[in-house]
Each structure stands twice: as structure tokens, then as C-alpha cells.
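Researcher: Dear colleague, please comment on this protein.
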Amino acid sequence: MISGAVDLDEIALLRWLEANAEGFAGPIAVAKFSGGQSNPTYRIDAASGAYVVRRKPFGTLLPSAHAVDREYRLISALHPTGFPVPRPFALCEDTAVIGSIFYVMEMVAGRTFWNAALPEAAPVERRPIYEAMLNTLAKLHAIDPAAIGLGDFGRPGNYFARQIDRWTKQYRAAQTDDIPAIERLIEWLPRTVPAQGRTSIIHGDYRIDNLIYAPDGPQVAAVLDWELATIGDPLADFAYFAMNWAMPADGGPGLSGLDLASLDLPTMEETVELYCADTGRTGVPDLHWYFAYNQFRLVGIIQGIKKRLIEGNASSAKAEATAMRLIPIAESAWRHARLAGAR
């Protein structure tokens, strides 16, 4: 979705792109995508083709957040392997150009599905769309990070332990309210971290609206939004994806409450079977701990959005509605923690 407002220096951007992005030629037309809360994203239509620019937000930012330079490094490593990411063109680390770090990549043509129920897709296509999504995730988890120069892309040690520590710090840095459910999670999660069995590249925000599908088929044409990517436990990605079956259907990625059989959509159990078949697993652990963790991490992200909203620096018109989800998601996370044994 495109909005009308553009908040960057188009002349400075054009000059930099012509000097640094291979084959780039103006003139350009710039439009800002209205979706996304974290890194502002723009469509660039130029004489040489269509491109996408992602930048950090302007203003003071939380430590380690909005890492578009990490995104660029990752897609630059993945693109030569044939994994479906947009072709990267150039990274600008000079904040004097448009006011923040940014990078440019190709604009991938295709379809984006915002509603996980896939009302715009033919029923016969819906299950293949989910199968392609799972197969693509399995392909990501099969890539050896060291073989593509990403051996140092994540810190060593238990992924969940370090992520809980990170998101606790992020939450504290952006905290605006005292929310009991979050305080209980901050105490319980570090004490109950599961052992890590496998290590891979993980996307960190793998959901259907972060994929572009082929215009006329169920194939994944590109995986987008790699800001949270790192090296870690692939179960984090799968559990985050599987959590959609436990989230209420509201026109977004949630599926709970839908008649999946009548919609020709897979159940969570079928999704687990498909992922295990693609990755050679014999099964996955009880997912309630992972759902509690993933919703706690969402709380950290949403709290950052709420803080930027209060400071007048939110990057999306949807920021206020997103911020209102903070307490419901925190309470849902604690319910999953209770189902995982928390008291």
C-alpha cells in the first residue's frame, strides 16, 4: 500500500543513487509505503526501473534497533544462493545524504497477502500458498551461515536466552507503563529457556505479509523485512509462524476461529507435519513456551512503536492502533506461559 506523503530529500536521493547504484538512471518518482511500523520504506520509479529504499527512522533510536545495514548485509549474502530475496544494489551509511542510513534494492513484482485467510486467492491455491511458505522457511534454515559469510551474524550461546535479555532491555528502554503481565514474563522466561538443538539463519518476523508471491502462482518470489534476522534456533521462526493459528482472525495474520477446512487452509497440526517433512525433524516441542516468548518479543516491538508515537516519531499511520495492542498481547503471552507451566 502506498501513501501520498514523502518525507525525504528526493534530489539528494537521486544524486546518490545515480552515483552508487549500478545502472540507476533518473528521473524518479518517490512514494512511501504505508505498511510497516519500523523502517520507513519507499517505492522508487526511475527511468532504469522500479526500486525500493529502506531507511532508519529519523531522530533518536533505541540501541540495536532499525538495523537496515544488517538487513542489507544479509540479503547481499542470500541473493547469490538463489534464496528468494530482492537484488540488493547499494547501502548508504552517510546520514548526511537524506538524514539516516538507507539501502536500495530491486522492486519485486507479485502479490502480497495481508489477510492470512487468503480471501482473494482461489480455494485451490490456498494450501499451496502455505506449503510454499513453509518450504521457503525450511530452505532458509538449511543454509549454512558460515558458507555464505554470515558465521558472525549472531552472537554465540542459547538464542532464546540472549533474545529474552535483548527484548527485556528494549522494553525497559521504551517503557511507558507498569504492566503486570510483562513483569511476570520478564521473571519467568529466563528461568525456563529450552535447550537449543539446531542453529541456522532465522528471519525473526516470518509471516505471510512479509512475503511476495508470484503474480500467477503460489511460489514465493521474495522474502522481505529482515531487520530482526540473526543466527539462532530455527524453532523461533517456526513457532512465530505457527502462532498465527493461536491468534484471533482479524483480517491480518491470525487464523484462530476460522473454519480452516471450509477455507482449504491447513491446520496447525498439518503445518507442523509439513515443516517436519521439509526439515527432517521427527516433531516439535510443546509450542506454548515459544508462543509466550514470541508474544513477549512482540510486546518489546510494540512498546518501541508506542514510545516513538509519544515522541512524534512513529513511521506509520497505523502506529496508534498497533500501540493499543500492547496490553492484550502481553496478557495473551502470560496465558501461554501458564499453559507452559508458569504459576
